[in-house]
Write a structure and sequence with these properties.
Glutaredoxin; 10 helices; homodimer; Glutathione S-transferase Yfyf (Class Pi), Chain A, domain 2; 237 residues; 4 strands; glutathione transferase (chains A, B); 4-stranded mixed β-sheet; alpha+beta
């Protein structure tokens, strides 16, 4: 039975899983759950994932969610997956787990907060909360500093690795989500982090051509969002 | 060389690691980093863990932080660790990873927020922020509901398991941190969740006598905090 991947290419962990499957020749059926249209809240999807989030995989009679757990499961299940994605050496594997665990309350929290406050709420006409926006930006900048000065200090990929692991895939997908910000804000936040920017490029290259293809929807939406935001700011001038 | 565990028994993930080591006969040296006194910010500790958080382990020349990653590493490294802590079966292991990943942005985020807003800030004389306190309580209650109705629906331990895994140890330590709240708030928040309360008791029993011993400092601090809070509220009446 073909692996089913319930996902939305607008979701950063969904993209990580899609790129991973394509890179490793894992056959799968992609089932889009449009999160901007709220399809994650339908009774049908709730029966698959009661947390109402994407991604979820269904492999035969086994349903699994949480993207890190999914990437580890797929790495372990398919013998054809190259070992650099999820190293079998105990210490190297522990380093990958450490980055993935760090991600949750740092890079992901900051990134989601910045996008919600600067893109999603304004586009939905919700009054801005400058304090929340500022806190999210502080969390994100702290996380980017840790990426720049710690996780990327010993090599081109996270935790001093010479080839990408599932952690690189997941965290780069997160950084890519910042493309949804205005160009000015995006550049102001990211431009001080030279190693981070280089690592994004290195991960793109290492996962070509799948990276660009899977991010196509994000780039298209970025264009639409920026036009909408420009129109909105025009109206209020 | 003996495993070094840098920790504070007032920190929930520190307690999980200490109980795990004691349960599995892993020899270690416990080095206390007093977080209430800010010892995690000393240059000496920052050289060990630049994130300035506990716990951290040092195993020979390998330094590792993030408690989930540590528990997985220790489970994999020591052959004497009973298999229920971190199952080798691919599907069972994936379920444990899924719970651990879910933990970060849900139970942990809610629990930390509730404690910071209701205990730490008031004890430090910082004016309360009712909106932040309310949001944290909502996050915590949602997480407790998911524990009650989903993660504990199929068995006494998380993800339908008949014996505790590293996920039970970590998440129960988190729930135990709520002991620092006033008795009234603690009971109001937790009493609706009967399965959660039973699971805490089952995990305590399964890890006796180490659970009670390692939580001794928390119980002592709870008494001190409640006296301090009572004295403070007396002053303002």
């Amino acid at each position: 039975m073909t692996l089913k991947v319930y996902c939305d290419r607008m979701s950063q962990p969904s993209r990580a899983i899609l790129i991973f499957c394509k890179m490793n020749g894992i056959e799968f059926e992609e089932i889009t759950i449009n999160i901007l249209q709220g399809e994650q809240h339908t009774p049908e999807y709730k029966a698959i994932n009661p947390m109402c989030q994407v991604p979820t995989i269904v492999d035969g009679d086994f349903t699994l969610f949480e993207s890190h757990a999914i990437l580890i499961y797929l790495s372990s299940k398919y013998p054809g997956v190259a070992s650099h994605w999820y190293p079998s050496d105990l210490v190297e594997r522990a380093k990958v787990h450490s980055v993935l665990d760090w991600h949750h309350a740092n890079l992901r929290r900051g990134s989601v907060g910045v996008i919600v406050n600067n893109v999603m709420l304004p586009l939905n006409g919700v009054p801005s909360n400058p304090k929340a926006a500022e806190e999210a930006e502080t969390t994100l900048e702290k996380a980017l500093t840790v990426l720049e000065t710690f996780w990327l200090k010993d090599g081109p990929f996270l935790a001093g690795r010479s080839q990408p692991s599932i952690a690189d895939l997941n965290l780069v997908s997160e950084v890519m989500e910042l493309e949804l910000l205005s160009e000015e804000l995006h550049d102001r936040i990211l431009s001080p982090y030279k190693k981070v920017l280089q690592w994004v490029e290195d991960t793109k290259s290492a996962t070509a051509p799948h990276f660009e293809e899977i991010h196509g929807v994000l780039f298209k939406t970025r264009k639409e969002f920026r036009e909408l935001m420009a129109a909105k700011s025009g109206k209020t001038e």
